[in-house]
Amino acid sequence: MVKKVENTKYVEHIFNDCEDTIVWSCLQGVMGEIYVExxxxxxxxxxxxxxxxFFAGEPKEEIVLYxxxxxxxxxxxxxxxxxxxxxxxxxxxxxxxxxxxxxxTKKEPNIFDKKKLEQIVDTLPQDYEMKLIDEDxxxxxxxxxxxxxxxxxxxDYNFYYNYGLGVAILKDxxxxxxxxxxxxxxxxxxxxxxxxxxxxxxxxxxxxxxxxILECLKRNLYPSWDAQNKWSLALAEKLGYHYSHTYNxxxxxxxx
Length: 256
Description:
Blueprint: E1 3-4, H1 21-27, E2 33-36, E3 44-49, E4 52-57, H2 61-64, E5 75-79, H3 83-93, E6 97-105, H4 114-121, E7 129-132, H5 135-143, H6 157-163, E8 166-171, E9 174-185, E10 188-195, H7 204-218, E11 222-224, E12 226-227, H8 230-238, E13 243-253
Parallel strand pairs: 4-5, 10-11
Antiparallel strand pairs: 1-2, 2-3, 3-4, 5-13, 6-12, 6-13, 7-8, 8-9, 9-10
Keywords: Transferase
Domain N-acetyltransferase: 128-256
GO molecular function: acyltransferase activity, transferring groups other than amino-acyl groups
């Protein structure tokens, strides 16, 4: 029977050597949840935070098919730690599972060129305004589908104020682009960047990314970047990140 883990210490070994910050957030008890298929002697586990699930240990259909009560969405991204987990996901979800490639970047705390990042921020046109995400912008993000993931993992502004960090670009008071902490872990954040479709291809994501990295460095936080696609990877590399490896994930549509 699948159960939620209250004390994550006794499942850390299952996620041994995991470099995914989503998993770190869950194991550290900052955000997200950990589940096991057997709370007496667990050999199979999953970490879930937002739209992501990471599996580790012995592949088991019971845990792949389990959907926590708090998950109301019908879409999720499942990340297998090996081919056996991938086969298990495919077997369980069949045509609902779309196999995709994602791109990890190296976690290198001292590689960022602050001067270059500041120069990027300075290219923001004068008719735009950049601000840290405050309470007003937090609620603006929640009201619009294109930018809700900037703050969606923070149940209220107080939680975001204490654990989140983000920057926003506005034009005539309208939110048009933003970069924020999709999730938080001890010592860093996982970056999320979104731009209103009408304002894409103007370099706003590039500017937001540079500013958020600078704000992280001021606070001794590492700005982790996991790229959904090659465009995101290219943007990360322009900001100073280095490619680490490609990995498989499954986008599950009809997650019931």
